[in-house]
Amino acid sequence: MQPTAVRMADKLRILVPVKRVIDYAVKPRVKSDKTGVETNGVKHSMNPFDELSIEEAARMREKKLPVEEIVAISAGPAKCADTLRTAMAMGADRSIHVDVAEDKPLEPLMVAKLLKQVAENEKINLIFLGKQAIDDDLGQTGQMLAALLGWPQATQAAKVECDGENITVTKEVDGGTETVKTKLPMIITTDLRLNEPRYASLPNIMKAKKKKLEKKSLKDYGLEEAFRLKTVKVEEPPTRQGGGKVEDVDGMIGKFKELGIL
Fold first, then answer.
1. How high is the pLDDT of residue 83?
2. What PROSITE patterns does this protein's entry cite (predicted)?
3. Whether the Cβ atoms of residue 105 and residue 73 lie closer than 8 Å to each other
4. DSSP per residue over 187-254, as a string?
5. 100 contact partners, CB below 8 Å, separation of at least 6
6. Domain ranges of the chain
7. Is CB count within 10 Å lower at the N or C end of the chain?
8. pLDDT under 70 in the chain at which residues?
9. So what's the pLDDT on residue 4?
10. Rounded Cα–Cα distance for residues 204 and 108 (Å)
């Protein structure tokens, strides 16, 4: 049974930012000088929350919604091209790689300013972003971008539905769910319950090699690198101390008193 097409006032032009991060299955190691995390020789992959964003954009097209184009974008070193190829294999039509030095990653505000320019240049009306990147866990870019563009936003989406001219987003909150509804243009940040991303199949990986990957710089968007934050020190979490056994309740109370809890 074919899905029913949904009428919308505007064709969907979707932007999906994707970030190259240390693979979620790899345990990060702090550099010996404690200036950051070691990335050389470490497996990288697409940020898991960004995979959800690409998947949701692809599903909107599969639901026969009027998706005109899905554009993936990444800002980082040359190896980000591999991440963008994966995004195109998962459903993006083309991609933009903004060249940024690996040792000088952009801060959330600069990323938001970049995405604002891209959205305006590409006439984007819907942006899917992962709610956070698993390398820095800042979770700020989507909200900053919404403020810069003046668009409505729905964060941490667990379900996205299109009903006529409206987009309805459901997310989990303390004690239940919250549902918000708005019209285009809008920004949605994705959470883990939204969907299960597909694997990039070999045929689609081969097709992705023929899709357009455009290389840009910050200057092409009228921007220059600006850093407002300074990393003072990066440290491993303290080693967890082993527990101890007590013989009875009196022993437990005595131990609490010894530790100053009681």
1. 94
2. ETF_BETA (PS01065)
3. no
4. EEEE-TTS--PPP--HHHHHHHTTS-EEEE-GGGGT-------------PPPPPPP----SSHHHHHH
5. 75, 76, 77, 106, 218, 225
6. 12-259
7. N
8. 1-9, 164
9. 42
10. 31
CB 4 within 8 A of CB 28: no
HSE, side-chain direction, 13 A CA sphere, residue 254: 8
CA distances from 259 to 64, 185, 255 (A): 63, 57, 6
Radius of gyration of the chain (CA): 22
Pairing, β 213-216 against β 176-183: unpaired
Cα 129-14-7 angle, rounded to 5 deg: 125
In terms of Cβ atoms closer than 10 Å to its own Cβ (0-12, 13-18, 19+), residue 150 is exposed
Residue 9: the pLDDT is: 55
Residue 24 near residue 122, CB atoms below 8 Å: no
Positive/negative CA dihedral, 169, 172, 60, 133 = positive
Task: Please name every residue paired with 94 in a beta bridge, in sequence order, or none if there are none.
Answer: 71
Give the architecture (CATH level 2) of 12-259. Answer: 3-Layer(aba) Sandwich (3.40)
- Tokens standing for 96? 């933009």
Q: Rounded to an integer, what distance in angstroms lies between the CA atom of residue 31 and that of residue 39?
A: 9
Strand partners, 15: 71, 127
Contact call for residues 53 and 187 (beta carbons, < 8 A): no
Q: Which of 61, 71, 66, 55 is nearest to 165 (CA)?
A: 66
**Pick from 123, 242, 230: nearest CA to 184:** 123
Half-sphere exposure at residue 260, Cβ-oriented, CA atoms within 13 angstroms: 0
